[in-house]
C-alpha cells in the first residue's frame, strides 16, 4: 500500500487526500493550524462560492494566471464533479448570479465539514498543528518531510498544498515557496490580486462607504487603456474596492510592481449615455436649477457626496450660479462625469488580497498529474502554484481540480 503525505488542509489538500485515499492509499494530512479549512471558512463572505456553473472553457478563461495549465486536470475533475461530490456528501448546492455555486445552507462550515467527514470515512489520518518546514529527497526522489519541530515523516509521495501568501491569519503564509526552491523549483515572484487599490486622491475619504453601480472603470497605464470593466465599485478611506476594482487589481498590481509606470483609474459615472446625450441631460438640469448654485444643480445627476469631488476635478466652483456657467465649463463638467480620474498609488498589501499571483512555476509541473518535473513523487496543487483566477468560484475550482489530479496520480504513478 502506498503511503501518501499531503501538506496543507485547504481545499486542494483535502481533495488530494480524499482522492488518494479513494484509490486505496494510506494517507496522512499535515496541517499547521488547529483545524482544517480555515481559509475556506471565510470564502464567499462565509457562504463559500464553491465553484462556477459555466462550462470548462469559460472557467479557464476566468483563470487569468495560467488557466490553460488546468485544461487537463479540470476536464478530469470539473465543476460538475465538484457539485456531485458535495451533493453526495449531503451538501446541496444552488446557482446564483454570475453562475456562482453556493451551498443551499449558505454556510462555508458545511463545505469544510463535508470534506473532513469524507476524509474520516476513508480513514485519512489528519494531524493538525504540524507545520512542515522542508521536503526530504533521497537519490533525487521525494522521501518525506521534516516539520518545524524536527519530526520526520516518510512517504512514497508528497503533495504540497500549502496555499499562497494572502490572509496569513488563516495559515497560508507562503511556506511553500522556500520548500519548493530548496529542492530546485523556480518560483514566480508573488504579488496581490483581487485586492483593493490605494489612490493618491485624498477626497476618497470624504466619500468612503459610497457604492456606485453601473459604472465603467478603465485602467490606464502611462496614458493607454489596458483594461475596462463595467459594474459595481465602492470608495473607502484609502481608495477604491468592490467587484470591478478587485477584478482590475490583478493587472494594476502587475504594472505597479514596476515604479516607472503611471497607473490611473478613470470612472465613467454615466456610461449608458453618449457625450451628446449627457450634455443634453446636464442642460435640462441647468434649466431646472437655473437660479441655484452649480453644486446644488447636480443633485439629480450624482450622489450628493460625489458632487464636490466631480466639480473639483473639473476645476469648477460649486458656488458659481448656474446661469453664469459657460459652454466650455459645461463641456468640462460633462467630460469629467465620464472620465473622473484617480491616480493609483498602489494596492493594499498581499496580506489583504483574496488571492496570490505567482508561486511555484507551472512550467516545472506536469499539468495532467501535478507531479514535479524535477523531483519524482513530489506534487503541487492549489494556490501554492502560479495559478490564480477572478472571483466567481474559479479559485476553489482550480484548487479542487489540481488537488484531485495530484491525489489520483500520486497513487497511479509508479
Ligand atoms: C476572504 C477570501 C474569500 C475568498 N472567497 C472565495 C470564494 O468564495 N470562492 C473561491 O473560489 N475562492 C475564494 N477565495 C480564494 C480561495 O479561498 C483560495 O484560492 C483557496 O483557498 C486556495 O486553496 P489551497 O488549498 O490552495 O490553499 P489554502 O486554502 O490557503 O490552504 C492551505 C493550507 O495549508 C496550510 N499550511 C500552510 N503552510 C503549512 C505548512 N508549512 N505546514 C502545514 N500546513 C501548512 C494552511 O494552514 C492552510 O490550511 C477567497 C479567499 C479569501 C482570502
TrEMBL record:
Q: Which cofactor does it need?
A: FAD
Q: Known Pfam families for this protein?
A: HI0933_like (PF03486), HI0933_like_1st (PF22780)
Q: What sequence ranges are listed for the domain RsdA/BaiN/AoA(So)-like Rossmann fold-like? A: 3-408
Q: Where does the source fall among the domains of life? A: Bacteria
RsdA/BaiN/AoA(So)-like insert domain residues are: 191-355
Q: Provide the alphabetized UniProt keywords.
A: FAD, Flavoprotein
- The name of this protein is NAD(P)/FAD-dependent oxidoreductase
Identify the species of origin. Answer: Selenomonas ruminantium
The organism's lineage? Bacteria, Bacillati, Bacillota, Negativicutes, Selenomonadales
